Amino acid sequence: MQKFKIILSKIFKVILFAAGGFFLVYGLYLEITHTGDNSEDDDPGYSDGIYSATAKLNDSATYKVDVKISGDSIVQINFPNGYYLLEDSIIAAPIDKGYAIVEGVSGKTFEIEIEEKE
Asked: Cβ distance 93 to 42 under 8 Å?
């Protein structure tokens, strides 16, 4: 019976050691795959505010505009002639690497390129 307890104790220690090694390796795997260099993610993120941008309307006319960004989405476009499109006349567009496609409720499409914060 004593030999059985000793063998059982050794088996238990081996199992604990193996489990600890597994969790150590798995933790390192998670650390490597979920942190570090995110070279694919070049989008700096945008704080809320007004930014200078270029807007191309339906693949034709190009305008220098100011855009209002809220929650990493374009929610307003201000044109240089004083005309503007507010949240209720455009569909808020998420920004991806400095670009966004804004759909107007009137059917117009604007390709927006963010340039700099004002």
From this structure: no
Q: How far is CA 104 from the centre of its chain?
A: 23
**Would the pTM count as exceeding 0.70?**
no
pLDDT digits (tens, 9 = 90+) for 2-30: 777 787 777 877 676 665 666 665 666 67
Find the CATH number of the domain harbouring 107: 2.30.29
pLDDT tens across 34-75, in order? 655 554 455 567 889 999 999 998 878 898 999 999 888 899
pLDDT number for residue 34: 62
* Amino acid, res. 66: D
Q: How far is CA 91 from CA 30, 34, 67, 99, 105, in A?
A: 37, 32, 13, 15, 7
- Calculate the CA 98 to chain-centre distance: 12
Joined tokens for residue 112: 């927006």
Instruction: Say if residue 32 is in the same domain as residue 66.
Output: no
Structurally, the chain folds into a number of domains equal to 2
- Residue 89 sits in the same domain as residue 61: yes
